[in-house]
Amino acid sequence: MNNLKKNMLEGLYNAYIDSDKYFDNKYIHSLVSNDSKRNKKVSTVLEEELQTCDSFLISVAFITLDGIERLLLILDNLKNKGIKGKILTTDYLMFNQPRALDVLSSLSNIELRIYKTEQDAGFHTKGYIFSKEDINVILLGSSNLTSKAINKNIEWNTRLISTKDGNLSKSIISEFNRLWDNEHTVLYSLYKEEYRKKYESEQAKKIRTMRKELSEVISYDLKPNTMQEHFVDNLKALIKEKKQRVLFVSATGDCVIIVTGCENIEYKRISKTFQNNKNLCIA
After folding, report:
1. Which entry of 12, 91, 249, 256 is 20 to 30 Å from 144 by CA?
2. What is the pLDDT of residue 261?
3. Into how many domains does the chain fold?
4. Are 281 and 251 in contact (CB under 8 A)?
């Protein structure tokens, strides 16, 4: 039995049969997550794998500048070593920051492509493949290339080891290549200006929506209905008579009245839940 096969079998034994049997970490299958109490971060694993790889493939849905900042120095060092990588991402939800994509695209050892999504289909991959000598280290799970995803969020990723001839490596790389060469996939440098315009348009749309919602909340005219007016009149009379305890029962099933302890009667809205003409908040 050659050393590679022996190490692979030992790694599988540790992962799936007996974790007390400790072998070379290089071949260990494991969960990769963020845990501040144990000083564990997905970003640490990504950095370690990048620093020791011969080439890499990354497919993620979302990329932000703060998510790649810690990796840029490593990626630049890989460039100096002649180590190349491919990164596949998407225009799905117009989430990816153009600045982050620009920075990655500027690295000569990285080819960046964008998968243009259809209206009825999203793009949500999160996979990292690091080629090392005769094995591939594969990270599959939930982490995008955003700072929160690789440093803080509750994320589950599985670190898997496969020989380059193994079915796992072949099937994942085959799927990556299928998307990489897909008719909907374009080189970022050719899509850059169009993407930036779409991104800025989407951001402006979000701002307009937020402003509209805020305007609707501010301008909402809260008026009590007839039953509520009678209630308020009776309540004012009871307060004037200095009554200490009052029981009010509404059995119409058609409105809600909320009362808080205060002598200055005003109509107030406390949440969107009460923004209709059938509900009244008195404070």
Report:
1. 12
2. 52
3. 2
4. no
